[in-house]
Amino acid sequence: TSQTCTTLSLTSEEFTTLHSLATASKSTAYCPYSNFRVGCCLLTTSGAYITGANVENASYPVTTCAERVAFGKAITEGHRGFKAVAVATDIAPPASPCGMCRQCIREFCELSVPIIMFDGSGGYSVMRLEELLPLSFGPEALGVQTRSSS
Amino acid sequence: TSQTCTTLSLTSEEFTTLHSLATASKSTAYCPYSNFRVGCCLLTTSGAYITGANVENASYPVTTCAERVAFGKAITEGHRGFKAVAVATDIAPPASPCGMCRQCIREFCELSVPIIMFDGSGGYSVMRLEELLPLSFGPEALGVQTRSSS
Amino acid sequence: TSQTCTTLSLTSEEFTTLHSLATASKSTAYCPYSNFRVGCCLLTTSGAYITGANVENASYPVTTCAERVAFGKAITEGHRGFKAVAVATDIAPPASPCGMCRQCIREFCELSVPIIMFDGSGGYSVMRLEELLPLSFGPEALGVQTRSSS
Amino acid sequence: TSQTCTTLSLTSEEFTTLHSLATASKSTAYCPYSNFRVGCCLLTTSGAYITGANVENASYPVTTCAERVAFGKAITEGHRGFKAVAVATDIAPPASPCGMCRQCIREFCELSVPIIMFDGSGGYSVMRLEELLPLSFGPEALGVQTRSSS
Ligand SMILES: [Zn+2]
Ligand SMILES: [Zn+2]
Ligand SMILES: [Zn+2]
Ligand SMILES: [Zn+2]
């Protein structure tokens, strides 16, 4: 983990906090349909931690995943730069963000942002956005200039 | 408005606060694709106000509307009962929640919850959820017991 | 039913065909997560019948409901005018389209279009779009002119 | 292209047909909001070609992308095995499927399925699903057995 932190430019305290908050956020999920709890924690470039969890709906497509709940909070609270995205589930190996959420991350983060996936037993994997969503579709394709730095 | 408040069992202070916060939240929207800002404010039965705004994506279906951003925050922060939902846009007559968001409200609110729609010039309309989404599809159809009171 | 047909400007043959096709389409659903089958059948103004069923995904929000599968087919096959929308499920009383699908219907149909909901035992309910999605949000709110007639 | 076909186990006729149909399908898109046309063509293991295009909505998240329209058709028409997925847009370099659509492809295709992305001037790129959506989230995570072969 110490080497992981160095590679990701995170302090070990930041890594530990991301782990704790993403894991703790699982208990805030509303998932009576899947019973599959997901917690998420974002670390902003200004040092703030923003959490989320999945919020499901009887009409399944109306569900909002943990990552999108967290970005919804973060963006509407004014955050624009992100240093890391952490997700936590109860399974091992750790679950990765679904494609829809990778697309959400793409809208707001640099391609190099690390995505840390914690499993239910203390283990984790890390991939950068450009690895999880290579050759991604983004605002440029629509000719729209969107990204602002914070 | 005084009579509206009586009908909706809201104090005039609550109504005014819903108006101010839903309207102010419009400025927190991320909507470079539609340029159509929507603000939302929920009032919980415990007296808390939770806001949201639309968060769009280059892949349009990955967009989260203002109402769902607000419910994502509220639910993952532990809120379960809601006294009112307010939305605000820049047009007149006021825009109503899209069908997808009415479905989201259905998951978490009583059928009698008032939905207050503020326009861009101080006017508003009010409808109850059962009027905006009659004969609604909900958790019961799936045989799932979900609603908890707060 | 004879009176229903008169009210809806449908022949009894059209009504019977909508019932048969919507019901038969349930067996084409892909719903390993909800095990809740939904069939849909659209009748176009040119007399064509277009069917669909729900297509779910391990990431629940990536699910496409039966109605949206049917409209996806119809619109990309060039159909623009619709005389009726029928949905069929296995429960009674009959399930209604979720809010997200009501919004989809709103994009492509007149407000008076009848939505026929068949239950699993031969019964049904009928409502017009303007009754299921009153005060709806549509293209006009965005200042976009979209509807074409066929 | 001849070498591409060998690598992808496609005949040059299949490749040409995928190109023609994906490109032609762009004209069936309903995209008054983005004005960004996308066409899609699937080749099933049984040799059938199924097309789709994007179908947008005034409520942006209710939009269905071209790929999901095509899979909605294919799955509800009984197809289960797929040899290739082709998408076509008007820009260059070619646009890739959004993350949400990569997740849809994941539900129904082998990880090695080729995704061919055609640009507006005759060029193209090819990636396999496992390259576009590495470490993907799928049915296994939910303990659901879903994939059937055709
Ligand atoms: Zn997700
Ligand atoms: Zn909405
Ligand atoms: Zn639906
Ligand atoms: Zn897509």
Description:
Four copies of one chain form a homotetramer. In chain A, 31% of the residues lie in helices and 19% in strands. Chain A starts with a helix and ends in an 18-residue tail after the last helix. Chain A is built from five helices and five strands; from the N terminus they run H-H-E-E-H-E-H-E-E-H. In chain A, strands 2-1-3-4-5 form a five-stranded mixed beta sheet, sandwiched between helices. Chain A is an alpha+beta fold. The first copy, chain A, has a single domain, classed as Cytidine Deaminase, domain 2. In chain A, strand 4 (114-118) and strand 5 form a beta hairpin. The model of chain A has no long low-confidence stretch (mean pLDDT 95). Chain B binds chain C through residues 34, 36, 89, 91, 95-104, 106, 125, 127, 131-137, 141-142, and chain C through 34, 36, 89, 91, 95-104, 106, 125, 127, 131-137, 141-142.
